[in-house]
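Tutorial sheet, problem 5. The four components below are modelled jointly, 1712 residues in total.
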Amino acid sequence: MGKFDNHGLNAVSPLGGSEPQVDAFAGLLIREVTDRALASLSARQGGEDAVKSAAASYLGGALPEPASWNANGEFAAWWMGPDLWMVSAPHDSHELLAAELKDAVGEAGSVVEQTDGWCRFDMEGGRCFDVLERLCNADIRAGKPGDATRTSMEHLGVFLLCHEAGQKYSIVGPRSSAGSLHHALVGAAQSAI
Amino acid sequence: MRYSGLKVIKEALTGHKGWRPTWRDPEPKKSYDVVIIGGGGHGLATAYYLAKEHGITNVAVIEKGWIGGGNVGRNTTIIRSNYLLDGNEPFYELSLKLWEGLEQDFNYNAMVSQRGILNLVHTDAQRDAARRRGNAMILNGSDAELLDVDGVRAMYPFLNFNNARFPIKGGLLHRRGGTVRHDAVAWGYARGADLRGVDIIQNCEVTGFKIENGKCLGVETTKGFIGANKVASCVAGSSSRVMEKAGMRLPIESHVLQAFVSEGLKPVLDGVITFGAGHFYCSQSDKGGLVFGGDLDMYNSYAQRGNLPVVEDVMEGGMALIPALGRVRMLRSWGGIMDMSMDGSPYIDKTHVDGLYFNGGWCYGGFKATPASGWCYAHLLATGTPHKTAAAYRLDRFRKGCMIDEKGQGAQPNLH
Amino acid sequence: MIINHPILGPRDSQEFTYLGDATLIDRPDWQAEDAADQFHDYLYLRDNPAGEHRELWFHEQGDRSWLVVTRNTVTHEILTVELARDVARTRGRSK
Amino acid sequence: MTDAVMNTGTVAFQADGSTGARKGVQVNRLDGGLIKGSKALTFSFDGKRYTGFEGDTLASALLANGVRLMGRSFKYHRPRGVLTSGSEEPNALVELRSGGRQEPNTRATTAELYDGLEANSQNRWPSLQHDFMAVNDRFSNFLTAGFYYKTFMWPAAFWEKIYEPIIRKAAGLGSISFEDDPDAYDKGFLHCDLLVIGAGPTGLMAALTAGRSGAQVIIADEDFLLGGRLNAETFGIGDLTGSAWVEQVQAELAAMPNVRVMPRTTIIGAFDHGIYGAVERVSDHVLAPEAGKPRQILWRIYSKRAMLAAGATERPIAFENNDRPGVMLAGAVRAYANRWAATPDQTVAVFTNNDDGHRTAADLIAKGVKVTAVIDTRADAPQVDGAELFAGAQVVDTKGRLGLESVQLRLANGTTRDVHCGALAVSGGWNPNVHLTCHQRGRPAWREDIAAFVPAGTLPQNMSVAGAANGDFSTAAALRAGAEGAVAALSELGITAKTADLPEAEDAPINVTPFWYVKEGKGRAWLDQQNDVTVKDVKLAHQENFRSVEHLKRYTTLGMATDQGKTSNMGGLAIMAELAGKQIPEVGTTMFRPPYTPVSFGVMAGRSVGEEFRPTRKTPSHKWAEEQGAEFVEVGQWLRAQWFPKAGETHWRQSVDREVLQTRNSVGICDVTTLGKIDVQGKDAAAFLNKMYANAFAKLPVGKVRYGLMLREDGIAYDDGTAARFAEDHFVVTTTTANAVLVYRNMEFARQCLFPDMDVQLISTTEAWAQFAVAGPNARKLLQKVVDPEFNISNEAFPFMGCGEVTVAGGCRARLFRISFSGELAYEIAVPTRYGDAMIRKLMEAGEEFGAVPYGTEALGVMRIEKGHAAGNELNGTTSALNLGMGRMVSKKKDCIGNKLSEREGMNQEDALKLVGFKPVNAADPVPAGSHLMNADGEVSAATDQGYITSAAYSPVLGCSIGIGFLKRGDARKGEVIRAVNPLEGKEVQVEVVSAHFVDPEGERLRG
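Model answer (structure tokens):
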């Protein structure tokens, strides 16, 4: 699960394992994802344009519009709120993503390491609609790739990122509740499939 | 006409010909000594005690709809005297004592039933708070017992002791707490007041106040002007609407509180029980329905109805506490408009307008307060001075920094 | 209820936390002559209308925007929704 | 009929052996119907075994088996049979299933038959046939409406002791098993352009029209079979039977990906802005749900438009003894015959005030059932073939103890006549199902031509009503209304739909002459059969001035039963109107409220049950702590280690004392990740914190931490924590575990609503860092083994209240804060959460030589009480900085949240409560938190109350219990001996008032 032993401390996944958890159902796969580094980027007052252009050159593409996410090469980013984005990159190559991003945007923006604030589960397969409609109020059947929706699942606030409508989604939630979120996803899958 | 078992038998044997109207429907007189706005529990109780305790019978209670149609007719029927703060507990203890003698006093069986209230605690901090409150109750002449988890299990073995997210650690038991047949309270006070000469005027809405040089002379209504030496507002959730007509802004927000009843069941729950780790409390009516409720819908509202999220939240709490309820069905939901005050405690006070009085801010504690509210409001109206147990319920207490904040939530009404 | 978020479109009110009357934006000047009275009225008195009510909602399970929602407290109909930050600026708030 | 039924794929019984055989068992089973005669199902009622067929309900199967007696009424325990064929059933309620699945008050009319179904009658003892409580019926004259308000008052004590226990025991209907419900429930969310409520001719036509336009459509019906009344009538549609047409439409809808057909799904409520609640009964028609599958699902449906096509409910006519088993609604009798091939008896009479009732006679005759009479209240009643018609006649009484045997008529000419019949089909006309239109502000309006209320007033936003629910009762009208309603609703959404060519269908006019109750007769005529409310009760309510509909309902309990008066309210209103000399619309109606039909707790809770009631938050060291055998405690949603028992420790106190002493004597480690952490950046970050905190922050140097106190605007303290300055424009703020969310919300409020032009950015980082407190004289020595050598953390280089970024364990980035909650030389060290598990192990390993201990929340609590630090119990929402002894911290020189209102007189009185410490005079005495404080002598009362103890613990350092709490003028009373009273537990101890700083009051240790 990534190059974590770059020092004397070994990492564990949000679910507490040394390897990411995978759960398989007929037509659905739920995968714990642990190999991404995260950093939040917010524009300072008056720095909105500067941040956007600086981020664009660092990420190799524009920051996403509200309620959406995009990927540029190894980077991905989603909109969290007004003038606030979450940037993600491979953990192996960017464990210090926050520092890199701060260098890129300088005084124009504020950057905060978020890597371990979150857990992420990817849901793949033809039954995504049937399972997600048991979990959140987002109109997923009307959704499209690139949608980034903040919603709640079983009392937990999560980001729902659509990769391929009905086929692949990422669910990003608070790390300390990874167990509860995982239980909710698996429970919904068992119920719906 | 006096009600009694003998009377019931006599009437049964003579075709029930002798039952008379429980209250008259008179036309309003030109003026009264006291005009009470609001034919709810508090208004009717105030009229009753004005007549009975102070001999003031030239009184009208004016109600825009049908009497008892407000919160006295849409609450969860609980009575209790288990408050923490000195500003509150003596008042609610007075209320509970009045409940205890009420039926004989007004000759109407309101089914006052003291089967006990158990507030569950789930953390050590809650136990500490329960101990402080229990001691305050006892110091104020009420009753309280601190139960450990085994004590709770002995009372209600079917609560969730096995796989609870927030395990039960004990509870504060208030044996004199209980329930009352809510509608009967309004009817009993109405009958008692009517028998003593009070005019109860239904379908009569106040449209304005007649105020001249700082003195209130009466009210404009849909049935014309009604003069009064004293006008006493007592309209709970409608307080801001009514007092606005007298140019007042109040420390009150109106919020909707939903309540629920299940289908009738053979005995499940003897007393009242409140969940300490979620929004759920429950009792069982004499008819067999589980009467339960939880938290406010949270947003300002004058609609006597709520929305689905709160229904779910409440019934999630029910299942968390009593897993055996899984297949019990909720039969009906309804909403009442709560006059939420800024510190969770009520107001019984004069206003800046001479002859205009105000009673409100009961949050969702109004029902249990009905007798004491009427008693103390009548005392204020009759004597001009606050009753000693209600002395803290002043409108200017926030200016002075003397809040009575049981929950410690500050100036946010929907959190009280 | 459904709140039509100015940035995100219709969202379930369940995602929001309610605060209350939008006049809570108009925090008095602490150095005013009658600051004590102003703060009292600001914090404790409410119009509490039966009808149109401008009120503050926080999109806690969403984008963390504070919104000013104009809603009818009798029908629950929602008339307008604005970003509280914009409203605050138009009401002269700055630093 | 037979061919058509063949077409529908269901099996009709021919006059052959198999039918005969079946009829042998099921004496009242008829030919035809929409049941699958090929699939026999066995079930039991009150222990007796019966056979029915797939497609039966419990009620239809019992009728087919010749069972009419199914229940007892609530008050008089009168024998009762089934009145209706749907969810409005007031009488035939049973306990379905057993054990944890026992389900009281289940309507036999909606319970789908499955093989092995087990049902029992309820509210009777010892048996349904012989019910002891039926004695009440003898005393009915004493038990009139509201009688209990007038008696049971003497002697006062008897109410709770004698009367009420008897009443409570007698009250209620079905019973629960008290076992946990073993089934799972689920919830979900659906979105659509058009929600169609009801799948009768109206709803199906609407769904078809909308579906063909490509719109997103959901059509839901509470029944397991779509079609509504079409399944109960013999109408044809075009050249098909009704049921054949339904199957055809259903097939087309099923083929549309944009249409979701939801049978067994009840729309329970219409909520704000087009949100509907729906309950889908996924597994109630089987013995038990499949593994992992839910019993029921609660759907939250977000609709842009909704059409109510819920049909209508027939209403009875009240007459003497109209409640005997066998007296049923005419439409129900028709439904049992046509859909379920069952009849309540082989001889049936019909009593009606409208043409529709005549259909029942015709259909029964066609099925070979003997119709002994058609009694029509109208003198100009239409002719009847195959049965004797009594026009202008009324039913004045009935006979038959456990089941109807005959009815007595009064004919138009005034003479009376007895008519033999085992069932009486009654029709008083139909009421549109307006319920959902009333869930918000809708108030139905009276329509004279159909003598019923129809939807009116403000309907729920974007809801329309069509078909019988709107008072258009004919099939043709329903089809038209459904199609046109769908087109209209969609056009509002900019979707064009075409009205399909409507098939031919019956278009009979409504001929009804209002007739509510038979006036003659001394006996009782029932309105609300379940609650035993009779015409006499309504008259008594009127006599006693309970005349408003709401008073009528509440005084008589009319319409308060499990059916919510679906069949009884109308009659009550009409009679009250007559008595009051008013028109029915003047009297008005009571409120219909959610749910449309009762909803189980289980489905409203969904998957949030047991330990999953709410999410659980786990600390980074959770797994390690489990390995140590730690006891855990819920702190908000967090699970935290409470203490770490060692082998041989038999009482938690032993563990906690050891953890405290070892920490104070050497070093202890505690996971403090749960404290809220908010990252604050921006040019105005310092100015912003200066507004948030009561004390000053502007001048806090970089690399330093400062304690901060937060006030509410009302001047009451609500949270405290630290702010560490990592750069001029970068702070990390900590909050208490409990208030993390609240503080963040308040900061965002200030940022967006109060100071919108401040350049400040906020984000929570609570979960991103695993943070550990390392406390005790050996804390530095321990950390020096973990922090990489290039970082100098000596006392000089890294003094008290210092903070900085370091690396640990050979390059793992970390944050180090020199802050102390325990009062010892202490640090908090944070690493990225994924390394938290490794970090706690690393710290323990490094601490081995010092005998380092992990400590839990208990030891943490003991040490903070020993230091007199305020926590949740002290920050209880009613205490000011002054009370907490921090009055001087509140800056008067700046504007900050809360400082202005903290100046109010009531919060600054000279006898204000002050936080102080308490030591028992007798060291052995405990001083429980929650005790109240009283002067050394004088009475113990609320009036003499001096304060209270907020937190208490046994201090292993002092060797006695200690407490902190609030005492009037406490700071001026040190040394005074007072009493801590705890009457709740019958305790009173003498305590000495001391400083709250029990240990190291000068604070030398933490600077060491």
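Marking note: Chain C touches chain B through 25 residues (CB under 8 Å). Full credit if you identified this.
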